[in-house]
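Shapes recur. One chain:

:::
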Amino acid sequence: MAKEIIIIGAGFAGLLAALSAARLRDEKGVSPADLKITVVAPQSALVIRPRLYERDPASMAAPLGELFAATDISFHAGRVEKIDADNGRIAVTNSNGQTDTLSYDRLIVASGSHGYQPPIPGLSDFGHSVTDRDGAIALDRHLGNLAARPDSPARGTVVVGGGGFTGIEVATEMPGRLREILGEDVPVRVIIVEQAPCVGRDMGDEPRPYIEARLNELGIETIVGTCIAALDEGGVILDNGERIETETVIWSAGMRASPLTAQLPAERDNLGRILVAPDLRVPGAPHVFATGDTAKAATDDQGNFSLMSCQHARRLGSFAGHNAAADLLGEAVLPYDQPSYVVCLDLGPDAAIFTRGWSPRAVELTGVEAKKVKTEINTLWIYPPAAEREAAFQNAFEARTVDF
């Protein structure tokens, strides 16, 4: 009797899960008719989420139709509303509002994450984000419209809420963007507001001085030890009482896992991620695997866990896809591991920083050389493989076996 693996999500984890499952199916000589692999997502495209802080975010999506056809992966357009793990079914609503019920033998939850917006007055009305493509496109449109607005200090001021990885990357992009839009002679001001005592706290002691020096070089201000308390049409108020006049606020402080994780019988962390077993199976739901941003998985035996990043999502996805297929084909499942961890942080038009390790993070490259690596990551490494069967399967294998 034919079996089916359903994968929720076409992001980095979902794509690699599908390719990895299809690779094992092919390796074992199993017909696609006997083991069907279906990706369920609103669109058959990979959003290049790590690049949404860049110019032209509307272009940051790679079509997957030809790749799926080359690898015998089916696609079902829609958004999953309900997971019935007890009966092996999901409910999927399409763009017309119609709901289909799909049955599975193994399910891979790779539905990703979304930007977290705390209940700050005015944030939902006046804040922007780069954590999803629609939000990034709206911000891009807003920035382009600034040139038509009356000249004022607020027009040339951008406040970035959050000084983590995303906040730093979007902030270092802004001076050049504003000058392109408003003109080289118009004063611009970019301010990072961070609740922690320093910007880039998670980067550690060795990388931080370079990051801080680069922010100073670009003229980016930092206000630390405080946070945004309220927004209105003309600016923000900090919790220390200070007001900053601005027409552009970009919120970058935090992510949360897909709310679908709450429908599964498993423990979750404070980000909503499921604490998965070593093979990425969901405890309490033996036919369900969680991967990518929906999973908290041990990367090694040193106490480190996966992060919400495409670096971890790709490898997590490859393990999850392999294991779901192996489980159905009577093959051994594999414990996920990812011992290497690197960060390549963009720092504007001509600089970046590349670090290796968890703690402490060792700086390996800075400046132009690191920027070359960042450009290669953003324009080559994280894109889908060519729509060619063997190349795609090799990509899935390397995602599971090759470390940085």
